[in-house]
Amino acid sequence: MQKTTAAPAKFTHVQCGSCPIRHRAVCARCDTDELERLEETKYYRSFEAGQTIVWSGDRMDFVGSVVSGIATLTQTMEDGRRQMVGLLLPSDFVGRPGRETAAYDVVATTDLVMCCFRKKPFETIMLDTPHVGQRLLEMTLDELDAAREWMLLLGRKTAREKIASLIAIIARRDASLKLQSSEGRVVVDLPLTREAMSEYLGLTLETVSRQISALKRDGVIQIEGKRHIIIPDFDLLIEEAGDDSDGGFLV
Amino acid sequence: MQKTTAAPAKFTHVQCGSCPIRHRAVCARCDTDELERLEETKYYRSFEAGQTIVWSGDRMDFVGSVVSGIATLTQTMEDGRRQMVGLLLPSDFVGRPGRETAAYDVVATTDLVMCCFRKKPFETIMLDTPHVGQRLLEMTLDELDAAREWMLLLGRKTAREKIASLIAIIARRDASLKLQSSEGRVVVDLPLTREAMSEYLGLTLETVSRQISALKRDGVIQIEGKRHIIIPDFDLLIEEAGDDSDGGFLV
DNA sequence: CGGAGAGTTGACGACTGTCAAATCGTGTGG
DNA sequence: CCACACGATTTGACAGTCGTCAACTCTCCG
């Protein structure tokens, strides 16, 4: 009731046909008839940077897609240790059909707009319009692959490699969103605080800071301000990340 | 061509209706008509303990379900560091519809029987019989949850907590398979070598061995032989694992 | 100007990895 | 039936990475 209602930049109703995530979201495969069905059911919600969208364990009666902004999924242990387990970018899906309560904290790290459906109607839609279920399966399989890549990072990479990997991942996503290539000189803005990076990487905030400084000192990256990063040679960064040069994917 | 053909215990054709994984596998929701369709397409393959089923990057022209035995999915870095990213038990699904090549090494850690489908026919089945796609989505979402739980383990737990978690996970699965409860005194056999455990947990084999010894010394577990484990008080084990007492789930 | 939040840096120590050797268990050849 | 070999596991000694605690800088804002 508090801030949730007083959200930023109220999103006016957008026609699915001109939606920015139309071709990647859960609705990507829908035909015109199916879109009409979604159109009459969907609604938009906005959240401010820093705002928690749902708490782990809380009842969650909607599902939805990130339209703009970034959100994170995080798990917390009893003693407060935290591990990020999902990084949600535009077109990513939030929530699980068939589940009552949220399994993770979902937090908006930037201002965020979501295209939502109440859970029950969405479950009905999934039964009626196979294209939604098919696309959701595809997206879930992609997320599973990303999670497994992430497990390799968490289990086996050094702090330096973790940082290099994260920068590479964000740069690749950013490039693919802007339809640019990620080769040679690449520039990115980190959408995460040092703390959020540490939660992503299974490190402490201090180690993150130190390794960023080290990569900077070694010329792998250059930094302007706190968040703006210039990668003079993307291949070098990949090498530092310990990945074989070919693709890397992500949520 | 070599050992692959000379597999153990040739599985004779089993009717889906009396298949041991009938109620949990990708076919769980199928009705009689649909089963008939699967029945005429499926075939069985057997593998010996230690045998690699597919190598990462290789062409993979089938998908399938584990009928009996255990397999692992593993990623390898260029310098040889390895991280397990999936532990496949009976009823778990192997392979990804719509993908040409395997993304991970798949290895049988015990003698294994799989119920297979060539990929193309399976993709057709998925389009025709919605229950298969629906069930696969459900299973994939479960796997994603398990992967995220695993990420918390890899990123934030201590070596001791990792070992306790692994034992708890295996004990829970084992209990659920045998329809027993996992409370009070529990007994399990570890189906993994110390090395496989270390690949699961993101540790070295030596650390695994040391922490198992420590848990034994502290009375959290008792050991007979190398693999047979007695847990006098399951709640105590859970406490050592750092989990909140309620559920824990897994692939 | 003071304060709060984000980020950086330093000193130190603990946990876990590395290297090496010893032990246990099982299967094979003599 | 026993000795030996090999793989799996355990244990020890030591080193390095990363976490902890703490001080300090920078920027933004009231």
Walk me through what this model shows.
The structure is a homodimer of 251-residue chains. Chain A has helices spanning 32-41, 119-128, 130-156, 159-177, 194-201, 205-217, 234-241, and strands at 43-47, 52-54, 62-68, 71-76, 82-88, 93-94, 105-108, 112-118, 186-189, 222-224, 228-231. Chain A has 251 residues and is α+β, with helices and mostly antiparallel strands. Chain A folds into two domains: 16-150, Jelly Rolls, CATH 2.60.120; 157-241, Arc Repressor Mutant, subunit A (Orthogonal Bundle). In chain A, the strands form three sheets. Chain A has a four-stranded antiparallel β-sheet with strand order 1-8-3-6. A four-stranded antiparallel β-sheet of chain A has the order 2-7-4-5. In chain A, strand 4 and strand 5 form a beta hairpin. In chain A, helix 5 crosses helix 6 (205-217). The longest helix of chain A is centred in the middle third of the chain and has 27 residues, at 130-156. Chain A starts with 31 loop residues before the first helix and ends in a 10-residue tail after the last helix. Residues 1-9 and 247-251 of chain A have low confidence and may be disordered. The first copy, chain A, binds a DNA duplex (30 and 30 nucleotides) through residues 158-159, 193-195, 203-210, 212-213, 226.
Provide keyphrases for this structure.
homodimer; alpha+beta; Jelly Rolls; Arc Repressor Mutant, subunit A; 4-stranded antiparallel sheet; disordered N terminus; DNA-binding
What is the structure about, briefly put?
Two copies of one chain form a homodimer. Chain A has 251 residues and is an alpha+beta fold. In chain A, 38% of the residues lie in helices and 21% in strands.
